[in-house]
């Protein structure tokens, strides 16, 4: 995926920049909120309304930044997914027919659709999510140091644990992602084969077999997807 991140440098730069600005504004807003509470406790109403107004303005600006971030993120991801599809299709224009026949048309179709969906859900989004977590931890640490150094030390220790602990799931996520891809290909091929043979099954009164075999494949795919999401969510929660 690094190849595609580099290919669309500007789009990814905008995503990372907007993520950074969003986190900075969110942390700054939290710091100002502490000033709001301190002013309220001290009954300094002028300071209270001043900090409250600043905090509201920051929140409004951050809302626009978040919207821009999401738009640029989708632009970057879609361009990168199309680049992946391009790299799948382009070699097909240069190989011989015998080489093309080494894989079924369903395989190619699955690579263009199912695999890119996996990249969308568990690839590019996760890269941006991890970057968000790192930036949030960094900015939060900078903000916390102004309150007490012990809080910063605690944040660093927790951050280190959160950084290394999810690596325990890395192999499981990679294995399950590959399994989902294979099962998606298999399910697509099975459903295509049975739909193509619908007339034969109909005349032989074997339509129940189509439902049994096809749904069996899709049930396996559903189970694998749930398992994959379990690991991905586990890593996301830890981050």
Whole-angstrom Rg = 25 Å
Distance between the termini: 21 Å
Whole-number mean pLDDT: 78
Note the main sheet. none
Tell me the overall shape. Answer: elongated
The level-1 CATH class of the largest domain: Mainly Alpha
Detail the poorly predicted runs: none
Keywords: ATP-binding, Membrane, Nucleotide-binding, Transmembrane, Transmembrane helix
Subcellular location: Cell membrane
GO molecular function, one term: ATP binding
Membrane topology: Multi-pass membrane protein
Description:
One of its GO terms (molecular function) is ATP binding. InterPro entries: ABC1_TM_dom (IPR011527), ABC1_TM_sf (IPR036640). Residues 13-239 form the ABC transmembrane type-1 domain. It is a multi-pass membrane protein. Keywords: ATP-binding, Membrane, Nucleotide-binding, Transmembrane, Transmembrane helix. It is a single chain. With 239 residues, the protein is mainly α. It has two domains: 1-147, Up-down Bundle (ABC transporter transmembrane region fold), CATH 1.20.1560.10; 167-239. The protein is built from nine helices and no strands. The chain has helices at residues 2-7, 9-41, 45-92, 97-100, 105-144, 149-164, 170-196, 198-203, 207-238. The radius of gyration is 25 Å and the shape is elongated. The two termini are 21 Å apart.
In short:
This protein is an all-alpha fold. The protein contains 9 helices and no strands. Keywords: ATP-binding, Membrane, Nucleotide-binding, Transmembrane, Transmembrane helix.
Q: Layout of SSEs?
A:
Blueprint lengths: L1 H6 L1 H33 L3 H48 L4 H4 L4 H40 L4 H16 L5 H27 L1 H6 L3 H32 L1
Helix pairs in contact: 2-3, 2-5, 3-5, 5-6, 5-7, 7-9
